[in-house]
Every structure is written in structure tokens, then in C-alpha cells.
């Protein structure tokens, strides 16, 4: 609310009455609040505005002009009402109704005030309970708002519709549907009935005038569409009948809206079968089918076919048998639009046919599979699609036809019986799929991507075992010699899940890959590297298809035999290119079966049952020991970049392994780790012996979630040793800390936090920078585990964590901050700090034990301010800033004051690192701490900040300026300026105030001119951490310079129109064309002819018959003749060009300032060339239509010609040639004789 009111207050000086009056009223109310010492809460504003409104109405001042008070009061009421508590609104309901409800008749002619009234009632309706909704005044008001929903003014109409929608969408508890839903449905039915009762459209077809009620009907439908889900189901049948009558009014947009709403209505869930529209669907289909639109009606046709599809889908759910009887008729009606000229109509038709294909019932599919004569509905549809694929009438509809075929393949995936029986797709669609596959290999066929989508659907449903029988790959030389067309494009489709068993891959693709690998080896031996690369790619694509076979395969126990497992392990070791697909397959093999074991519902015949999946998991569990050993070896042999993939597979297999298998694997890996750790410790410095140690640690991290408590405890003790945590290998040390952290997070280890922290403190000297982040993470987990009587350990950890806040690594800094916060929370939780047990404390100096609290911890951290190095002092200031932000509510005012005064002293330091941290703290304090705490120290703070206001290093000037801007938001200008002191320094504050006032004036002027703020720069996005946002996230709201920057010029981006080019027939002079069969392979798009094709530039040149070399002339007669008439054009139109480019010319900047061109050698040389090229005699000759005088032609490469050069030296002599791109040399035009060797003109 404060933000909304802050935008109104500046308008008190506005020249627009409708802006000035609300601002003046608001300022008056707030001055009354200050006089009466009333807190300006939403309730206070609400009560004051109601009182003011009552007084205005009592005076009978019911004028609604721009500068009148009553519209301003309604505007402010609508603004404040959403922030008032519902209890207050309910208590004042009678007052609100008595004051505002009688205003509706007067507001009818005043749209702004009416919108404010609607916004006010939007908030009122949201606050009411069920009993108050039955109030007579509320019901009458809702009826008035319903009538406004068809107001001719768009903004008023939209506001009323939004109010009704939000009221219906938020019923009072505990109701599921709003009490006004029935009333709204009755109003809609009444409005539609009145419209349908009006006169129909007049005139002949194509020239008819729309019915008078069409516009009102459009408004009603726009209102009905968003509220449709909230209406009672009992009202939907009658609304459906009324919607079906609207197309007769003759308005295409109205008909389209009616059909769209019908589509959405059919998609609604039927809550009550007796009240749903299911019983009307048959009548709906008849009515819609009887109002057939034209194919050329791009507005109505898409909505018409869509409503038919959605109606059929709803019909198939309610009554599948009745839907089956209507399917052929509806399919035929929609199919007729597939050959429409408009692409949008064709796409909508394809989507509708896709929906209709989902209505195939099991009985309809069974009838089609048993039908051998082709008389069933589905077989007729398939025959129709097959004929259309080669028909010239559907030439432009090939993509839509392929989409329909994909839908048919998916819709006929049912199996008649067990899992081994063929699908209906396999029985009915194999010839059509084969035809599509042959199109893919046809010469000149342009829709190969769409064919790939269709074949991918076939691969998913029937599987490669069936598909490759009708479309063999033909990749081997023997198949191609026999005339088979290679179909390597099928290999990438194998990766998706399908129904073929894994045994098919073992029996078909494994031998195929072995034969292709032999061909690859043979080609490499004979030096045919290109051919070898082709075979290598094909082998890789074959093994990439293994993933599709491993998704819950039915024959896992038989297919994953020892021989196949051995082959997979050998490939993992020896073939790095095949490693990713095999690893992915091994992971999917486990994950897919585990997912099915937890499936809630029983699977259909398409997939495994939970029991079968559980049997597969048990089979895989029996092989985990051997597979984990293989994967461990592979993990150690691959590079660091590839280990994530291997690690994921290890985690999947470890998740199903038994405890005994995990224990065996753990023992082996730990033994390997210990062995390599000892050899690493005894190795000389610089030897790279730690890589295997780090690898074993990575494997332990993968096994860690599945270890038992005993193994986890032993691993914790192994890693908590100097050999690991103080070793000279960065990687080993870092992973050691990471393992300790993960073990603590798992909760499987019970540790003595005090002893562990003591041990870690002893190992601090050998810490490497790479391990700091993980060490801080470990400390953050250990500190909360400390007992309340062991707080004396914390002071020894403070210096390390404080210095960690200055680490170069952002993650390490964040972990250090987390450790400091963890210490603070532990200390604030209570306990005792035994000073006698603190490190470095003598018993005589220790004194009494201290109570653990946040202030004691702040005192400990503040000890770093006495550090010997500026780095330590700066880090301490940063740590204190973080603690102040986190625990500001727990720290006393006295401690806040001590911290602020202590750090204020460092603002005068000469060290920039310290001052940078202090500025961050002051920025935080200005934002976070109470204003009364900072106010007494302004006289010291402001001059100290002004001393740095002219320092540009480290952005100090901007930082100080932004601190002052924040300060001026919390303190008055007089308070801050009075502390500035000397005149020179106070100029900075005056400048900031001027810039701020200027920004406000610009904002007000933009608001008065009605400009949107969309083009204003948006605020910097938050960093996700509140402390970071306060300290670094916000920048100055003012510009960095006093002068306005250059106005951004609008970029005139030329947009090419999306012109739809129709389909064309490709002419082939070599062979005749059969327009009745195979026309789809002859179709081309007009737009595709404009693509740049290989060799098209070379076609512009002549070639020598003997050598085949292209002959590139330096200039042709046609070029020279084309260049001749350009002289007159150049001279006649050179005035503007000369003013822009010559020495005497000038340009204008964005502010209108003139900038003269510089007198440079390059510009003078260009002017001389122009003067030399064009003479007055030439102009006169051109004007007299005589041939102008021209200089001698400039030959190619003339500007690079040397006086004594004879060409490039080659083995056979000198090569007098120069080289440029063919596209440049092939260009024709008037300036062809001036092209240079580098394409320069």
C-alpha cells in the first residue's frame, strides 16, 4: 500500500485535475493523521475515506468530473481496500452499501469512477462470508456488475468480468462452489436467449450484414469463457444449446468464439453424469455437422474442426459404442478440410483428426483386424490416407498427412490378447509404414524430417524387430549390391523405448556391428580413411540403440547372458566411443525395473507387471558384485570429465545390491585406498602418485549412501588422519573433508564433536587452499553437535572462519559465512564458555567462566579488529557485518552502539581494504539498524564519508553516494546536510539532492504525459542471498553522470513477411511424371528454390574445355554498359552523400547538435577520387544522352599490383592469378568494373 500511495503524493502539483485531486486529498488525510497522532494504517485510511465519502454525499455533491472530489474518494478507497482486513470490511458492510450502491446509476456515464467502484467491490466480495452474500444489497450489486459485463466500453467491461471471475473462483469456506454461480449461469442463459431471439443476419451469402445482437453476443462469450469451470454442471446443457444457435447470426468471429467455448466445455471433467453435456453430444454433432463452413474461411474453419474433434473425444469417454457409429461420418467431414489452401486450416484439421483417432474403441479395432475385405471403418480410413499420400490434390498437405499417420500408429497400439500377439498397428498399418519409409529414400522428397517423426512413432509401437523386416537397413555391401536402398536413418530411432525384446539386439545387431567393425578394420588397413570413418559412425549408432532395448525388457534374464555381459565389459574397457551408450543402458536396465516394482497400478500388456519387474531386480542383484568390479575398473581408467556418467551407473547398481555385496566392495576399495595412500606418502615430492588415491576416494563417495553404520564409522576414522587431511595431495585432502561431511550428513556416524574439532584444529597447518570450502562445510556440521559445556572450543575456530570470508573462491567464502553463522547460533543457544580451557589462556588470566550468548560471540569476533594485518581487520569487519545482519534482533542496543562506534573509527583509516569493508558495514547499518541508533553519530559519520566522496578507486565515490541516498531515505535532508561541515564537501550532498529531485520530476512528467514505465531500466535482480543483496545487490537509483546520456535510437529491424508459398511440381526433363501415382516425391516448395545451392556461383562462369578451369573476366561489356548511366545518378544524388562524408559535411547527434566531419587524409583522398572520376563534361554528356567519358577499366587486383612483380612463384614458373570468393566475382551490376581483389569497391 505504501508503494501505491507513494506514486500518488507527487501529483499535488500536477496540471491534470484527475491526478491532482486524489493527491491533494491523500495529503490532507495524512496531515490529519499527523495532527491527531494516528498511525497511518490501512484501516485508518479506510475509515477516513469512508467518513469523507459520507460527507460528500451528504452535501449532495454528486458530480463526477475530472477534478471533482467524489471520483478521487472512490479511487483512493479502491486503492486502500485490498489491504484492509476482512473483519473490518464485514463490520462496515452496511455503511459501504449505503454509501456506494446507490451510485451505480450515476456512474454509468463516467468510466474512470465506475472502474474505481468495481475495484472497490472486488475487494468487498473477497472479504464476505456465506451469510453476508445473501444480503439484499449485495445481491443487487452483483446483478448490477453482471449487467456491466456487456458494457460497450472495453476497459469497463473487462474490469467487471474480472470481478465476477474472481468472485466465482474464490467461494467462501467451506463451499466448493460459489453461491452466485447459479445466478451467473442464469444471467448468461438469459443474455444468450435474448440474443438468439433477435433478428437473423440479412443479405445474400458473401454480402450479408451481421445480426444486430452479434456484438453483444461477442461480449457475452468473452465473459463466459474464463468463468466456464466455475459454473454449476446443471447449467451446462442449456448453455450448450444456446451456443449452438449463435452461428446463425452470421458473424464469423462470433461463430469461432462459440465453437472455441464448446471445445473447452467438452474438455471439462464431468462431476455429475446426469448434469453433464454427455447426453447432448449426439445432438451437438448433428448441429455442428449441419453448419459446414467454407474451406476458405480461415477464421471459422479451424474452430469448427476443433469442436468436432473435442466433441468426439468426450463422446468416446461417455458412450464408446455410440461414438464408433458416428466416427466415420465425422472423420469424413473433417477430412474434407485437409486440402484447404490455408496452412492454419490444414494444421487444425490434422490436430482434429489426431483427436478423432484417439476415439478408436477396442471393439472398432478388433473389427478392423478381423476384417479382410476392407469394409470396416478403420480400414477405410487407412485406405483413404494411403491414397492421399500419392494424390496430387493433397500435394501441399504431406506434413499433415504424415502427422495423421503418426496418430493412427499410436492409436492402434492395442494388442488383441497376450504380450506376444501383434499390435493392431502391425496388422493394419505395415503397408502404409513401408510406403512412408520408401518416400524417405525417394529422390527429391523434401519432408524427410516429418517422415522421421512418423517412423519414430512406428519404432515405438511395433519395435525394430517388426519394422526392420519391412524396411531392412541394407548397410552391408552385399545388400547394396543386390539393389537394396541403405536406410541408416533408422539407426538413430532405436534409442527411444520400444516393445522389442533385448534378445533381438543380441541376435541381430551384435553380429551386424561385428561385421561392420571388420569392414572398418579392413578399410583402415587399406588406407580408405573416409570409408572407415563411415563404418565407425554406423557401429556407434548401432550401440547407441541398445538404450531402447533396456527399458523394462521382458527377456532380461535370457538376454543378459554371461557371454553378452562379457562382451559389454570388454567394450567398456576397449572402446571409449561406445562407452556412453553402454553405461546409459546399464543404468536404465536397473532404474526402469526398480520404478516398476513400486508402481501403484497393475501394468497392462504393454509393460511388465510389478512382480515381473521384481524378479528382474532380483536377477540383477545377483550380478551386482561382478558388475561393480567392472565399473570400478572403468571408473579408474576414464578421464575426470567422463567419471560422472560412470558414477551414476555405480550408484544405480549399488542401490539394488545387498549388504554383503556392498561390504565386499567397500573392503576392496578401502584396501586400495590405504595401499595407494601409503605409497603416496612415501613417494618423493612432485611425483603424481595421488591420482589413484583420489579415484578410490571418489568411489567411496559413491558407495557412502549404501554403507552400514559399522562401515561408515570405520571410514570416518580412516579419513580423520593426518595422512589424509594433511597430505601433500590437494585432491586427496579435499575428498577426505568431503567424505567426512557426507558421513555426518548421512546420520550413520555418532561422533564426539569436541574431540573431532580438536583433531581438526591440530591438522590446520597442512591445509591446502583447495580443501578450505569442504573444511568449512564440515565445521558447519560439527559446531551444532557441540555440548553446551564445550563452548570454549569455538574461539579457536573463529580466526580461520573469519579469514575464510576473504577467500578468492566464492563457494569457500559462502561456506566460511555459514560456519560463522553456525557458531553464532550455537552461542546464542546458551551454554558456558570455560575461559580456563581456551587455547592460549593461562589459569591466572582466564577469570570467571562466561555465559554463552550472541553478544559474547560478537566480542570474541571483534578481537580480530586488533589484528596485525589490514587483511585480518577487513575480514573481521565483514564477519561482524554478517553477524549484525543475521542476529540484529537478538543484539542489544548497547552492543549495536559499541559495534557502530568502534567500526566508525576505521572509516578514517588510510588502508583501502579496511575502508572498503567499513563502507559495506555502514551501508548495511543504514539499511538495517534503527534510525534512532544512528542519528546521534551522524555528525561524525557524514564528514567521514564525505572524505571518500571524491575517491574513484575501488568505486568508493559510487559507494559513498549510494550510502547517502539510502541515508536520505531514513533521515531528513536537514539532519544530514547540517552535519556536512565545510562548503566543498557539502556540494556532494547538494548534488545528490538535485539529482534525486530531477529524477522525481522526470517521473512525474512521464506520468502526466501518460507514458508507461516499461522502457525504464529494471531493478538489478536479487542474488538469492539477503545479505548479499543488501551489501552488493543494489546500485544507485540515479544516473552516473549529470548530463543525460544519448537517447537510444530505435532500431529499424526489417522483418521479412511470412509469405506462404504453395506447393509446386518439380520438373525433371529426364523422365516422365506420373501425376496419379507417386506425386508426393515430386512436390517442392517455392521457398526452397531460393536456397543457396552448392555450385550455383560457379555456374556464372565459362570453363575451358581442356582443363575445366573457370574463366573469370576482369570486366564484361554488360557490366560496363550497366555502369555508364550511373554517372548522372551519382552526380544528381551525391549532395546528401557529400554532406555526410566529405570534409565540409556534418552530422547531427541524437540531441540535435551539429558535429563537423574531421579533415583526415582518408576523407581528402576519397574526395579527390570522386572529383577525378566525375567531370562536368561527363554530366553534360549524360544529360544529352551521349556516351560519357570513362577512365580505363580497373582490373581485378589492380590495387595490389607491384611494379616489378610477375605473379606468385610456383614450381612450374609464375602464376599470374589472384583469388577471391566465387560469390563476389559472380556478382553483376554497375560497379563490377571497380571490384578489388579483396572484394573492395
Automatic annotation (TrEMBL):
Residues in RRP12 N-terminal HEAT domain copies: 12-270
Keyword field contains Nucleus: yes
Positions with biased composition (Acidic residues): 1036-1045, 1168-1178
GO cellular component terms attached to this protein's record: nucleus
Span list, region Disordered: 1000-1121, 1141-1212
RRP12 HEAT domain span: 343-637
Major localisation: nucleus
Presence of keyword Nucleus: yes
Gene3D superfamilies membership: Leucine-rich Repeat Variant
Database matches in InterPro entries: ARM-like, ARM-type_fold, HEAT_RRP12, HEAT_RRP12_N, RRP12
Protein keywords: Nucleus
Localisation per UniProt entry: Nucleus
Compositionally biased spans, kind Polar residues: 1078-1088
Biased composition, class Basic and acidic residues, residue ranges: 1057-1067, 1099-1108, 1191-1212
Family to which the UniProt record says this protein belongs: Belongs to the RRP12 family.
Official protein name in the record: Armadillo-type protein
Protein species of origin: Crucibulum laeve
